[in-house]
């Protein structure tokens, strides 16, 4: 066997022994990501249901009661309280007891019957934009449907045999028909957890070697820095692949994330992505003298990296100049591959660019890290 | 000082600073093959810097370092195959056992399985670590840890062994055992550089270099230096203090 292969194997065996022996690291590498996925999968939820609603019915007629009943019939808005006046309703919203207050004016039924344009006022708590947006949308949609029904009834009353067809929007949601947040978010969480685990462990592992002096001991052996680096990275690449497999299993089992894509494509993208994250970890380690510095460095990198990736927020919602920054973020491409492959069963033909870019980033980061590592250890 | 062909190590007018701290100020010395050279001096004298320069872990700011005829800090140097280092700090893998540490370093130095088996047996024998092969390195006593570090550094039969304060924090019995072990190595033809703050250990060396505040203030055989100052070689502390006083004009006394 070639001496370099012997050295590489020795470093891999040493890393595996140290990792397996350190129960805390082992738990951090395997169990913690799964627990976090489980918790975050439930916690990160953009589904808006059961919004507490207050109703102020100053009209108190059949029409106003029917309108309120049908509006509250779905699971978007829930009747929380009936108030006598607008001020009481506003107070409920202010105290957070209601997120929406519907105010029916005194002449609501009369205006409806007269066809002069009845108004329902909806007071929406804007402190939670997502929730208030969905609630306002539900109120507006219901109003449109109600208007449409009234037009049809009016036409029938006037003896029109063929009521005028109303414009009907029939949305059909592809890939995630229930619009479940978890299905969208879980692949992002997988990418995020992989980033946290591999980057921090790698950065701290190498910083520990420097801090405890073992790196210096290695420097007086014929071990080449690149072999040391390859040997240190290998176990974590394998752990990363296992982590993704476990996380996707939990995602499918607990959150119903579909696993439609080609597992080989997911594995390839994971491999390249882990090279990126480990490369960043190595780079941070070369800039750190202590484990504490490595930890802080890893943390400072991860926060903007996650926020500028499209994992939790849509890249389209960002300002243009910031959206451009996301093109330099490998997390973005990995999440695109995961979502594309798992949810839409997209293949390499559709996702080749993302895979190539992951490869380019992985190679670039690893090369820079290797050069810096060589410079600091040779 | 010229580098004679039989010299394994040479430092020529070497200067090295760490920020504003001048660790070595133009030190020149040479260590011949099979010699036990003691770098003696108090804490902060520059001993560790000198050892690290010899090992290629540091580059000099000025001057030249040669180890086995090569620049030890050159990236493509082959010096490491003939060099062993026992650093001052505990730099083995504490979470690996004695045997696992030995095995790991043997693989890095490219020892064959058969060679390792024979070498392991011999080193465990001379270091008396045979009963502790399964024990984690961080569970060893100070003396045993130093012996393990020595065993790891000797696996590949280096021509030169650098020891940075090997007896620091070691009990007197282990200290004596360690020195006996070092003499065994010298008999096998190894060149040794030992740094120590203990003046009594200077007497055990063939030659000593007295370092003070980054300068080599005297060099020679311990008996010769003692004779020059009219004291017994066993009272090397008196020699050192006299030399420091002469060097500083009494300011450090």
Automatic annotation (TrEMBL), chain A:
Boundaries of every ABC transmembrane type-2 domain copy: 132-376
Gene Ontology MF terms: ABC-type transporter activity
Alphabetized UniProt keyword annotations: Cell membrane, Membrane, Transmembrane, Transmembrane helix, Transport
Subcellular location: Cell membrane
GO CC terms, sorted: plasma membrane
InterPro entries: ABC-2_transporter_component (IPR051449), ABC2_TM (IPR013525), ABC2_TM_bact-type (IPR047817)
Membrane topology reported for the UniProt record: Multi-pass membrane protein
Ranges that cross the membrane: 25-44, 182-206, 226-253, 265-287, 294-315, 351-370
Assigned protein family: Belongs to the ABC-2 integral membrane protein family.
Protein name in UniProt: ABC transporter permease
From TrEMBL, chain B:
Protein name: ABC transporter ATP-binding protein
Record-linked SUPFAM superfamilies: P-loop containing nucleoside triphosphate hydrolases
CDD domains referenced in this protein's UniProt entry, alphabetically: ABC_DR_subfamily_A (cd03230)
Keywords: ATP-binding, Nucleotide-binding
Highest taxon above the source species: Bacteria
SMART domains attached to this UniProt entry: AAA
Residue ranges of domain ABC transporter in the record: 9-238
Gene Ontology molecular function, alphabetical: ATP binding; ATP hydrolysis activity
PROSITE patterns found in the cross-reference section: ABC_TRANSPORTER_2
Keyword set includes Nucleotide-binding: yes
Stored Pfam families: ABC_tran
Biological classification of the source: Bacteria, Pseudomonadati, Myxococcota, Myxococcia, Myxococcales
């Amino acid at each position: 066997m070639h001496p370099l292969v012997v050295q590489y194997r020795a470093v891999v065996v040493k890393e595996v022994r140290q990792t397996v022996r350190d129960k805390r690291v082992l738990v951090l590498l395997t169990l913690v990501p799964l627990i976090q996925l489980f918790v975050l999968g439930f916690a990160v939820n953009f589904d808006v249901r059961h919004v507490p609603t207050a109703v102020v019915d100053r009209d108190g007629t059949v029409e106003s009661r029917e309108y309120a009943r049908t509006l509250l019939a779905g699971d978007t808005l829930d009747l929380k309280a009936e108030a006598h006046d607008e001020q009481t309703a506003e107070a409920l919203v202010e105290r957070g007891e209601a997120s929406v207050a519907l105010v029916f004016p005194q002449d609501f039924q009369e205006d409806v019957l007269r066809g002069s344009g009845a108004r329902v006022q909806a007071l929406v708590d804007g402190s939670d934009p997502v929730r208030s947006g969905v609630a306002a949308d539900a109120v507006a949609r219901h109003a449109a449907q109600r208007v449409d029904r009234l037009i049809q009834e009016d036409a029938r009353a006037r003896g029109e045999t063929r009521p005028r067809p109303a414009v009907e929007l029939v949305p059909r949601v592809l890939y995630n028909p229930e619009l479940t947040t978890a299905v969208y978010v879980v692949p992002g969480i997988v990418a995020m957890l992989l980033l946290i685990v591999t980057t921090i462990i790698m950065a701290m592992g190498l910083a520990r070697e420097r801090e405890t002096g073992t790196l210096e001991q290695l420097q007086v052996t014929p071990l080449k820095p690149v072999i040391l680096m390859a040997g240190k990275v290998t176990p974590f690449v394998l752990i990363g692949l296992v982590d993704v497999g476990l996380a996707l299993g939990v995602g499918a089992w607990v959150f119903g994330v579909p696993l439609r894509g080609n597992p080989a494509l997911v594995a390839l993208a994971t491999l390249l992505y882990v090279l990126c994250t480990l490369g960043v970890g190595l780079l941070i380690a070369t800039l750190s003298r202590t484990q504490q510095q490595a930890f802080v460095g890893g943390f400072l990198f991860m926060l903007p990296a996650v926020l500028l990736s499209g994992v939790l927020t849509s890249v389209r919602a960002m300002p243009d100049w910031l959206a451009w920054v996301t093109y330099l973020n490998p997390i973005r491409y990995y999440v695109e591959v995961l979502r594309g492959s798992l949810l839409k069963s997209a293949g390499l033909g559709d996702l080749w660019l993302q895979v190539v870019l992951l490869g380019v980033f992985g190679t670039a980061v690893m090369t820079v890290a290797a050069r810096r590592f060589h410079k600091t250890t040779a | 000082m010229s580098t004679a062909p039989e010299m394994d190590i040479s430092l020529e007018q070497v200067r090295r600073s760490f920020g504003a701290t001048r660790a070595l100020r133009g030190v020149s010395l040479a260590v011949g093959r099979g010699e036990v050279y003691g770098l003696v001096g108090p804490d902060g004298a520059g001993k560790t810097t000198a050892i690290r320069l010899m090992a290629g872990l540091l580059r000099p700011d000025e001057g030249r370092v040669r180890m086995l005829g090569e620049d030890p800090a050159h990236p493509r140097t082959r010096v490491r195959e003939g060099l062993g280092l026992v650093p001052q700090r505990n730099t083995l893998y504490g979470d690996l056992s004695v045997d696992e540490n030995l095995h790991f370093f043997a693989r890095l130095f490219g020892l064959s399985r058969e060679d390792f088996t024979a070498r392991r047996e011999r080193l465990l024998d001379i270091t008396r670590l045979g009963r502790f092969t399964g024990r984690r390195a961080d569970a060893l006593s100070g003396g045993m840890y130093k012996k393990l570090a020595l065993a790891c550094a000797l696996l590949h039969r280096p021509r030169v062994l650098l020891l940075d304060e090997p007896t620091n924090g070691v009990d007197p019995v282990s200290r004596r055992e360690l020195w006996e072990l070092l003499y065994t190595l010298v008999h096998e033809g190894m060149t040794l550089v030992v740094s120590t703050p203990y003046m009594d250990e200077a007497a055990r060396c063939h030659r000593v270099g007295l370092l003070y505040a980054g300068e080599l203030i005297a060099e020679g055989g311990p008996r010769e230096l003692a004779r020059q100052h009219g004291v017994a070689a066993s009272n090397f502390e008196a020699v050192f203090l006299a030399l420091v006083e002469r060097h500083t004009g009494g300011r450090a006394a």
